């Protein structure tokens, strides 16, 4: 191990990643085996003639940069060349700006201790300009003629972490984008997917109006699996009736979409069962439901065009989905249809107020829920038609069965190959979650009759059945948010959204949260691309400790309220909302594990998995999302347990090892004298000490936010 000086005109703090340090400060780097990529070995200047043993990667490139052995500057130039070769060889890309150079230096600090070469920043010559020159810093690493890379196309420096731990599925999606690219959406430098769709609709408006109705009109079901209050379905039905032709309903099963969207097997099963109900209800109206599996998601648009041709149809209707993939697919489909002399109408339906319509006084989009909700209520009061509900579709003419009789025989698969359940799971879940819009309506009426008035007082108690349990129906579209808000409002004596019964007001505001998160997807689309709503929070260095994550997933953390909640989700595919916040905060702040790993785990297990709501909830709990809790607000799992499950009923139900624990010890058995008792039952000790990890979380959040941006 040796000391070598770097005679480069860099401020020592640029090289040593931090506040100004005294000159001659020694920084230790482990320039070996970074992510399995050997780069530099320790070497002594005294043996500089044997340079072949110094480098273990890209040797020839380094040799060409080093002075002849014995020259006065050979050791220093060796160090300089090694450092620049690290920049070239490492998974991080060569810096193209001062802030990226800072990030390269900061990345070096992440290496684990080990055999190292020591570099020392040399004092600058008197009068030398103390500034960072990107071209100078990288001149040895890349040719001078090479163009600087576009920062909007470069991935975030931490992108490999996201891919190595399953956060970004490279089979379907690109690398995690840079913070610059995320901000480009905010600054209107990049078109939002919703703008691509609205532009396509505007550009083809005249052409679509001139399309004559063919042999049928088609409605494309997606996440709107109901007949009642379905905007697109009703519009398609009216167009078919006016033209005197049948209405055909269609649903495309995409295994790759289920995989890419991390859809839980229980959610897929719920969808298939809902399709059975939908098919039966449509048949009563002589409307066929064509169901087809398209193996490759990219082939869906072409297959739809083919089906339209087979049926002689020229008009397709569908309700918009607001995720990035779906908006872009529909924008292309609108133009494709127009080019082929057909019409595709994509309309708003999911939200009470379409995303983007509510703006601040300065014309900007809301980024905080409370003022958005006030604007939402005011808008609905001023536009009561927002809560008008659409009727069922019209019955088809008798000729429908004669011409399209084969479509009535379309079969619904019992399961999807990559999303299967065991026979026991199917039986259990079907008993817990009846599917279809009739079950949804029945559940809503029961909730309004028995629980909505006390919702404000009971909604945070996980052991109490005080919530509506409509989340899976809203996620699958078996009931509309308009129907929920309209029904609740009509139960209120004031017939208003912001007066009367407190429970009704609170529940309506919770339904509105779902609309708010859809609004966020539309205006800040990068949240669909594995980026936090606040891009600067992508600079936090998360942990990816496998054992801790496994303990969290299995409900074996030693924190009873956390373990009870996780086991509930694993067993029934659902978790109380208060518990979702508790376990999310614990994962991100007590364990400091990347929030996106928890976000994915939830989607893979929840029957009500909805990207917008799930992403919004995780962003709130991890303090990285829209309108989040401050990062320094960290849930204490013990206090949360004592406050919301005071008698421990919820814990005892889901953690049988603790069923025999008496009194307050249920919340902290090892800290309150019940350790020997629960240890015999196999219950683990706490995997972390909350007070210690709390300080660690605060430190890491501050460090991440204090970095010059990436």
From TrEMBL:
Listed cofactors: (6R)-5,10-methylene-5,6,7,8-tetrahydrofolate; FAD
Positions with biased composition (Basic and acidic residues): 147-157
Positions annotated to bind FAD: 455, 467-471, 507, 510-517, 608-610
Co-factor binding details: Binds 1 FAD per subunit.
Protein name, per record: Photolyase/cryptochrome alpha/beta domain-containing protein
Family (UniProt): Belongs to the DNA photolyase class-1 family.
PANTHER family found in the cross-reference section: CRYPTOCHROME, SI:CH1073-390K14.1
Alphabetical keyword list: Chromophore, FAD, Flavoprotein
